[in-house]
## 1
Amino acid sequence: MIEMAVLGLLKERAMHGYELKKRLADTLGPLFPVSYGALYPALKRLKAEGAVEEVFPKAEVRRRKNVYRLTAEGQRRFDRLVESFGEREGVSDDNGFRVRLAFFRYMKPETRLGVLERRRTVLTERLAELKDRLSSYRERVDAYTLSLMRHGMDATERDIDWVDDLIRAERRAARKPRRSRKGAMASASSTGGDAS
Amino acid sequence: MIEMAVLGLLKERAMHGYELKKRLADTLGPLFPVSYGALYPALKRLKAEGAVEEVFPKAEVRRRKNVYRLTAEGQRRFDRLVESFGEREGVSDDNGFRVRLAFFRYMKPETRLGVLERRRTVLTERLAELKDRLSSYRERVDAYTLSLMRHGMDATERDIDWVDDLIRAERRAARKPRRSRKGAMASASSTGGDAS
DNA sequence: GTTAGCATGTAAGGAGTTACATGATTTT
DNA sequence: AAAATCATGTAACTCCTTACATGCTAAC
């Protein structure tokens, strides 16, 4: 998860660890917080595996800053990670979806649609399960659990509506490609997106 | 987390591992899934630490079922875990709150209110941060990130409303104690709740 | 008789957190 | 000169997941 986030951020431009953490906090915010104890080892790993490489700013004083840039291998790795968004349930997928959405602009339109549809499937199944349980346990559970179930259902329904909106927007964009007004929906070829 | 859930379930009655997992899936559902690889070691640990003890059903054939019962130490431990619901942010607290809510009926009214109010504080801070970020990054982020932020805000606002409802209900119940109609809001002394 | 569900566990490993340790630079 | 913030890292630990391993019992 943290690897995908790091690679995604480095698609925009080369950065050093400290900067990555701040940008991560800015984009993902209170959802998916990242600590240095996770970030630096991840960078080290990615470098050892050739997904990122260090870049030394020309003649800059460089006060002990390790700036990393995405390699071609890193680009591929990002794509692989993004695609690995499965159908299996779990709260972990909630974060996975959010992180992917934050980097949607670097994905191919088909990839985006795929992610959205798999997300929709997961949410629909979750809703069905919650509904089932609500109707079979209604009499047996206390008011608190009931409220928890109801709220969970409501929240899931709203999530589905939201995803549906995103899917509709994606389909509209696919029909009339619209030449990137303000860059908002600018589509970037997944491996070649160099938006520096 | 899993420890609190196990102890909470055992407050109702003695159970064995397999049963605990099913009941857990029934109550918490797709939120907070539990695997055997987490459950059995947890039971072992709790037993070693004296929070639960094995109970051997009288003369029953007992086809290799390890039934556990909560001890007095386990009761105390549950209370301690419940109270340890802090103000610090993080997605992890989301699960923590849900699990606690599922066992609200075993808590003292003051404990319930405390948990609800700390939850409210966390959510309010999260909302404020999301709002801040939305207003300062509105121009710089793409449509996807914007949508993510907006939906996050919406969801958080609804969560706050929900918690407010729970707080109001709690306050109402505190004013007129209402003699547990149907047992829905039955208040149990936190250490002595033996609802078997 | 064989598939499905009941029942318990372990080993290896993944993905983080917390706390510690260090030092440079900028702001007040 | 002190405080804040920039900047990097490690070690130990927590908590859980996945995959494996085993065997019993009920239903079809």
## 2
Amino acid sequence: MSKPVKQSEINSDFFDRVYQVVRLIPAGRATSYGAIAKYLGAARSSRLVGYAMNGAHVHSDIPAHRVVNRNGMLSGKHHFPPHLSMELLLTQEGIVVADDQIQNWKEVFWDPEEGLRL
DNA sequence: CCGTTGACGCCAT
DNA sequence: TATGGCGCCAACG
């Protein structure tokens, strides 16, 4: 198994799946768009995860700030309001951020497959 | 209906 | 190590 599959062949609620996973990210930890896509069986559709986050602002219970790119860089900071920037939110959770990048990324990174004990 | 865009990531050079 | 190209697929004009 583990064969790449188009998300459209899996289900039509890809975004909801993404939101579900993001909600499970523990405070003080963070994951990447690619890790979520991979967990959902659409490893090559990481861009869709980012797109899903774009509409996550309507769901105030989704910690979108805990999702960054594979390098731990805050590539989506530009989409947050000034008073609730990614850097601020992450810092409040104990994550160290410098130059728009999460420090100790290897330790902070939360893999959905590991965290959810797949 | 068609071309562009985009909170990404892998691979080639 | 750094840079550029391509795939992926929904949303938009």
